[in-house]
Amino acid sequence: MSVDAAVPKTISRGDFAMNQRSILLRSISAAIFAASMAAALNASVALAQGQKVLKFIPQADLRILDPITTTAYITRNHGYMIYDTLFATDAKFQVQPQMVDKYEISKDQLTYTFTLRDGLKFHDGAPVRSADCIASIDRWSKRDALGQKMAEVTESWQAVNDKTFTLKLKKPFPLALEALAKPSSNVPFIMPERIAKTDASANITEPIGSGPFKFVKEEWVPGSKVVYVKNNDYVPRKEAPSWAAGGKVVKVDRVEWIYIPDSATAAAAINAGEVDWWEQMPPDLIPVLAKNKSIKVENIDPLGSMGLLRFNFMNPPFNNQKMRQAVLYALDQNDYVLGIAGDAKNGHPCYSYFTCGTPLASEVGAEPLKGKRDFEKAKQLIKEAGYKGEKIVIISATDQPIVHSQSLLTAEMLRKLGLNVELQAGDWGTLITRRTSKEPVDKGGWSIFHTWLVGPDVTSPAVNFAVRGSGQKAWFGWPEDAKIEELRDAWFAATDPAGSKKAADAVQVRAFEFVPYVPTAQFILPTAYRTNLSGVIIAPITLMWNVEKK
Amino acid sequence: MIAYIVRRLFSTVIVMAVVAFVVFSLLYLTPGDPAAVIAGDIATDEDIRLIHARLGLDEPFLVQFGRWLWALAHGDLGTSIFTNLPVTQLIAQRIEPTVALTVCTLVVSILVAVPLGVVAAAKAGTWLDRAVMSFSVVGFSVPVFVFAYILILTFSVQLDWLPVQGYRNFRDGAWEWLRHLILPSIALGTVYVALIARMTRASMLDVLAQDYIRTAEAKGLAPGQVLIGHALKNAAIPVMTIIGMGVALLISGAIVTETVFALPGVGRLTVDAILRRDYPVIQGVILIFSAVYVLVNLLVDLSYVLFDPRIRY
Q1: CA neighbours within 13 Å on the CB side: how many for A145?
Q2: Which residues of A2-24 are buried (b: 16+ CB within 10 A; e: fewer)?
Q3: Is the ipTM of this complex over 0.85?
Q4: B147 close to B187: Cβ distance less than 8 angstroms
Q5: Per-residue model confidence as pLDDT tens digits over A348-368
Q6: Which of A512, B36, B273, B303 is exposed most, by the fewest CB atoms within 10 A?
Q7: Which residues of A touch B42 (CB under 8 A)?
Q8: Minimal CA separation from B66 to chain A, in Å
């Protein structure tokens, strides 16, 4: 920049420049005014008048549309909006046909024959065929643990015709229908064959299903809004809805998922009536919303979620069974209920490796975790384990209150036991990366992390992956225990409910000895909705059919 | 002047190249793995390894950087790891709310702050001056999000005048569009008003002490004419400079404001991308922000000509 002093500063020149600038400014103002008027006059009304629009704040942002490549619950919930399943589990834990009209099981239990219902159509208008179902189940069984287990004993899937197909097994697999009715991640959703042929590790790009809602991709703004419209071609079953089973009757024209990351803003939005339903609210905001008579705060999840404390078996000191057992004697689940749920009304202790309130839950073997907290016993076990003051690194995520509150409680409890504890808090993205590390703690490794799983993911040895002892193939922490794996296989072989219960008890007894992780609490994050909504389905998954808006 | 603009645009390219390298390197060094985020909580090592390989995240740094740079040279900012949508599309989806928010904030701030600064300077040492300066201190000290919550509680929840959150496109109606921007603009603009008001006051005080102001007053010009026609025009250059430099402040404030008011802007896109380690999106957005910052400052430099015709480039 330079100042040209040689240019005389004359009034005439200044006036001329001023006039020029003023003409320019006036022209710009006129253009802006004209544009605003045109926009206002041409204002497009996005929604036809009289449409019923359900505005919903989801628990997380929908980023990935493929419910097979990710286990994220938000993607699972999206899956329930646009896809349908062959079978579904109802509120009595019974498997019910969903897309399937009728099915037969051969006497030797090796052949299952399925016939699809009439009128099933994908959102692109194509009919649902046997080939679509077979391709979808094939892709699902490459990613899902229970699907993989079933694939091990599967001889073939074959289409008899467009509506009938068979599953042939090498040996009986009593959980075949339960697997196809799996309610939580990964759910065996049915997609068109051309989409289901996508590599199981690559995300699908066309969200086309045959479910009760259609995804409006043009209106999807990741990080902000997801839009679904009613699928008018969907033919619901006649039965009443029960969890994901029964008739999926859609009673609104359009559903908008509005992601509001800030809890205070979300609370203000539902208070002001800008949204109808907030899926999961933090416990500290319950009293704020409870004051508003136009809002109902309710627990619609009958199973809740299970908190857990996971050890790293690759590093000392928790590669020692006695150290893990010591934690069982010291950890008080009541503290974790309060820490996570804020109020004892929103949770309770659950001294079981299987979701309390489900058929396989029991307290067998749970005495070390259930009884009066015994710090002396815990200290004795630590002494017997030969603990030499090794550093214990708890990795935590401050952006996940459920994780961080558990981490703080565990750190305090371990310090009371005289252990050398370091709490290293970051964000969730860092935690889930760091937990993949098998390095020692001084090289970026870890000793303990916390998380939580929804009730349906912990109901049996089949779906509770955290209880497994498959070493390097196991979930992060990599516990190795041949005995627990044998007992799990025995559970798969059980053919009747009594045998199944007995085998699950045996798994649990071993789990309380071996301690692959510690269950910390069972809790429910309540939902809040405006009182002009009705028909919200009580289920461990948020489902949006049957919901009516007045 | 054209040579100057060409030189500045050339330096912009160099600045952006440096930014691109630094951002890419920092992201490479930052802990966090998008494959782990994609796989979800219930994943195994094998799941993550497969996703890693598919995304090419297991390749060496220079290979990844070279590939990204090559695509960038062809105008391709890449594809989001999570949504599979092009980064340009994601930014295009989000640019309107951010531009609307920042422009509204800028306009409101200048319209409020400059008169405040002028009045404070004209009434220097009086209660009015002290009141304006106290407001500036408060504006500077109160975090944007605190002010935002107070506004929401008062004007949305209690009085029910304005919406709590969200954004409406301009094409959906000018009034609805404006309604959704009023509170965010005020919340974001407070710091900016404080900054500009203080700078205007200081600059005006400096100019008001000049001889030509005394001359203008001596020849009988009205106080308003002296203040606006003579003093403010000459005090404008430092104010314009601070407005340009304040764009960075505005961008960082927009990230917080968009989060609190749930505006689907580029700021929130950035935060979400960082939390999920969506590298292509982070890189794309930071490049765009850098370009905007450099270009705004270029425009500010060029605008000096409007206030002082003696200036030549």
Answers
A1: 23
A2: eeeeeeeeeeeeeeeeeeeeeee
A3: no
A4: yes
A5: 999 999 999 999 999 999 999
A6: B303
A7: 71, 185, 453, 457, 465, 475
A8: 24
